């Protein structure tokens, strides 16, 4: 009550309330979640019998920029390219004892997750063919 009895007390009370209101707004705002402009491509590599292929090399090439990423499939044959730019891609899969397989013209849009499962056919891999010639 003593705030009202000295000069400037009303202004001090108003300023205190304004600061308190701003603090409450900031606390309630929370973190802002940014919108992603990337996408993901994931999948599984299997052989023609349906068994998972571990250790397959998966190469993803952006057709617009020619940049590439390479992953190796895990023990379940799974792979995942995350946070990649939107655009057109080609995916190539190679593994020892299998023929090379390619998936051309994969279009990826904003915040899209594309699942691309690959079935490899048994056959000579490219490394053995090159060494034999």
């Amino acid at each position: 009550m003593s705030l009202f009895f000295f000069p400037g007390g009303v202004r001090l009370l108003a300023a205190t309330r304004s600061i308190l209101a701003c603090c409450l707004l900031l606390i309630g705002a929370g973190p802002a979640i940014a919108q992603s402009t990337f996408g993901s491509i994931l999948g599984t590599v299997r052989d023609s019998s349906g068994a998972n292929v571990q250790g397959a090399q998966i190469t993803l090439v952006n057709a617009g920029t020619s940049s590439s990423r390479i992953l190796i499939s895990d023990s379940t044959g799974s792979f995942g390219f995350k946070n990649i730019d939107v655009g057109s891609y080609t995916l190539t899969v190679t593994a020892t004892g299998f023929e090379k397989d390619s998936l051309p013209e994969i279009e990826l849009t904003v915040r899209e997750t594309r699942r691309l499962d690959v079935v490899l056919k048994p056959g000579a891999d490219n490394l053995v063919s090159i060494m034999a010639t």
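The chain has two domains: 1-33, 38-132. Residues 38 and 85 are 5 Å apart (CA to CA).
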